[in-house]
Amino acid sequence: MKINFIKINVTILMVGILFSACTNGIKNDTDRDTTIKDTAKFVSVKPAGPAPEWGKTIKPEMQAVMEKLNSYGDKPTEQLNATDARKNHTPADAVMDLLKENNIVLPSSKVDTTGKDIEVNGAKIHVRIYTPRAAEEPFPLIVYYHGGGFVMANLDAYNASAQALAEQAGAVVIAVAYRLAPENKFPTAHNDAFAAYEWAVKNAVNLKADPAKIAVAGESAGANLAANVSIMARDKHIMIPVHQVLIYPIAQANMETESYKMYAHAKPLNKAMMGWFTQQYLNSELEAQDPKISLVNANLKGLPPTTLITAEIDPLNNDGIMLTNKLKEAGVKVDHKNYEGVTHEFFGMAALVPEAKQAQAFAAAQLKTAFK
């Protein structure tokens, strides 16, 4: 399903999601009335049935979103090819329906957005640039990478997360539409991610940003990319980000961890889907052990202070915990928070899920401290 501009003000804001239409950015991005900062009244949505077997501890609001997503009856992602999988309903659709049902009105945006195509590795990719209206120039800068298992999703799908970071951290955010698999195999997304970071460093002043205050952030596959950008910056001796925000990162290849077993059938991400993503992006099973994919095998020394966010009901929960421990062993300062009762992709759902609002505030506070 493609999200059009008529629906964008309501739809794309809500959810940083894993499963969305695959459009590699929009060439004429415009300002959108799509913020999810404090509202006068937080509307609590209620689930219709009991907690699912795969998530007995799920919070009511999170369950309501998952119930709505399940109601569409889409075929499982892992049973489809990438083109068809990208047409499935998404958590964004579920949130949009719940917003309509509960008559939730969102406040005005506090950022301006523009789109730009940039040259990377002999190709062009799209970036969306979020610039705060009220903050004082020069702004700090965040390079943000969306999730989607390196296969799905786009800038629209993760607009909520990128915009929230721009508004709450008072920073310019560059959201990167790296090329996707299976059309573009490993390590294309990783190379695109670093090339976009290099572009951000070189163009910071033109973006009204301070080139000495650049951070990286990402969700799921995007968190993996963000960490790799920090590693590559260190190894290539260019400016290392002052901070990295890693939200439920893909950090290792073992799908027999405790969280993979416990949440093998969870929504919106499950074990079978992770296997499917791996097959779509990698050229061989051996590449799953590459330090770029299995960050726990990488040299993590000298990386920037890290904020790491995990969700309880998530096959990748242990990935985040393992990466936290490995970073600490390497001497990296890490602040890790695990949010109970929520699933993978919760971070962008702040209009409906209280834990998402808390997580966004935590990430923004960590970034503001780093920028000072």
TrEMBL record:
Transmembrane segments: none annotated. Keywords: Hydrolase. InterPro entries: AB_hydrolase_3, AB_hydrolase_fold, GDXG_lipolytic_enzyme. Residues 142-347 form the Alpha/beta hydrolase fold-3 domain. Gene3D superfamilies: alpha/beta hydrolase (3.40.50.1820). One of its GO terms (molecular function) is hydrolase activity. Pfam families: Abhydrolase_3. This is Alpha/beta hydrolase fold domain-containing protein. It comes from Pedobacter punctiformis.
